[in-house]
Design goal:
0% strand, Growth Hormone, Chain: A, single chain, globular, mainly alpha
Length: 421
């Protein structure tokens, strides 16, 4: 009996070590999942951002006007965001999130190299819409699956790492296209689109690996902090949607920006993809920094990202070569804010059992803001550049007080829940 306390101490110590080892392995598996999906998105973004870097000039070459290009881009983004609510609802109801993800990625990726076959701008516009619709189908399931790892690694960091890998692909794709245009001449758009078939197949292969390795991503949350605890859609959730819509209305697509750079003669054709590559390269760094800072200081880093993004319109639309390039760096920060921080704030108010739908509905509001902004900026471009700039700045900054109120409501709700429990 004298040795019993010692045996109990050893048992407790062993159990404690086993728990720590299990937590470490769980965290390691969660981060591996983040990285594998990051590889999928790296090759995915390489494909469609490579195509996006020349979509504007290519549509213009086929006869589309500036207004048509901006409206096509806006409609594509609207479908790309609004249909996410449908995809999210179907995923939650059926539980077939991997099937939905595969369908979405296939449409999203294969529509881009198909642009090499476009004989008129209407057909090309249809492919751009198809690419965005495919992205809409797979986006909420990917965001929801990633949310299972945020309890172990932090919302900002998980989405920051994933976005950084996205943006790495979004940097490599335009660089590849820029190199093609530089070597073969400014009109070699079809060759560039066709080459993107390689990265499309690489993304699909990585997606297969993710499915085989992590067939049930929800298991990653076992033993960790729950990430979807709200009983329903809170006021904070809807306020974040309104703020996101305002921000989206002023962010603008690269199609309109690239059309402006090409039409104004600020840069030659082959430099346009390089401009996009530089801005997305800055976005890689910004995503990691913003994501890490969000986990530490919260909403104020979102406000900072929005304010930095609002600097880009006058620099891009009124500046010379170097000023426009600096403007696109701030535009890249705006995209990092969109792709990292907006996901993180929504992940903080996910309703229990409806995380796919929650991401999908949020993007419905975001896409509506994007469509309104794209139509407005496309029409203003033809009539008044100063008004276009004023509109883009004003709607982005209008999101700041809404983000702040939503965050205060989240904090108050969390404090109330803690006290009642």
């Amino acid at each position: 009996m004298a040795g019993f306390p010692l045996d109990k101490t050893r048992r407790d110590r062993t159990l404690s070590m086993n728990r720590r080892t299990a937590k470490t392995l769980a965290a390691s598996n969660a981060f591996r999942f983040v990285l594998i999906l990051g590889v999928v998105n790296l090759f995915g973004d390489m494909t469609y951002e490579g195509g996006a870097s020349i979509n504007g000039p290519f549509l213009g070459k086929l006869g589309a006007s500036a207004a048509a290009i901006s409206i096509i881009a806006g409609a594509g983004e609207f479908f790309g965001y609004s249909l996410r609510s449908v995809a999210g609802y179907i995923s939650d109801k059926t539980g077939r999130y991997w099937l939905v993800t595969f369908i979405g990625y296939s449409i999203n990726l294969l529509a881009v190299p198909a642009m090499a076959l476009a004989g008129n701008w209407q057909f090309a516009a249809g492919l751009i819409l198809a690419e965005r619709i495919g992205r809409a189908i797979r986006k909420p399931t990917v965001e929801a699956m990633l949310s299972y790892s945020t309890g172990k690694h932090g919302k900002g960091w998980v989405y920051g790492v994933n976005t950084a890998m996205d943006e790495t692909g979004a940097t490599l794709g335009p660089l590849l296209i820029g190199l093609v245009l530089f070597v073969k001449g400014g009109e070699s758009y079809r060759t560039g689109y066709a080459l993107l078939l390689i990265s499309a197949f690489m993304a699909l292969a990585a997606l297969v690996a993710a499915r085989v390795t992590f067939p049930v991503p929800s298991h990653l949350e076992k033993g960790g902090q729950k990430t979807a605890t709200a009983k329903g859609f809170t006021s904070s959730y809807w306020l974040y949607m309104v703020a996101g819509a305002c921000f989206a209305a002023g962010l603008m697509s690269f199609e309109l920006i690239s059309y402006h750079l090409s039409r104004s003669g600020i840069v030659t054709q082959h430099w346009i993809p390089f401009f996009l590559a530089i801005s997305t390269g800055i976005g890689v760094i910004a995503s990691l920094v913003l994501g890490r800072l969000y986990d530490r200081i919260g909403i104020w880093i979102v406000v900072t990202g929005v304010c930095l993004s609002a600097i880009f319109p006058p620099l891009v639309f009124l500046g010379s070569f170097w000023v426009a390039l600096i403007g696109l760096i701030f535009w890249g920060v705006g995209y990092a804010t969109q792709d990292t921080l907006l996901k993180a704030v929504i992940a903080s108010v996910l309703p229990e059992g409806k995380r796919n739908l929650a991401f999908g509905l949020f993007y419905l509001g975001y896409g509506g803001g994007w469509l309104v902004g794209s139509v407005t900026t496309g029409l203003l471009y033809e009539h008044s550049r100063p008004l276009l700039i004023a509109f883009a700045i004003a709607v982005q900054l209008a999101s700041v007080p809404v983000f702040w109120v939503a965050d205060r409501a989240t904090v108050k709700s969390t404090a109330s829940g803690s006290s009642s429990s």
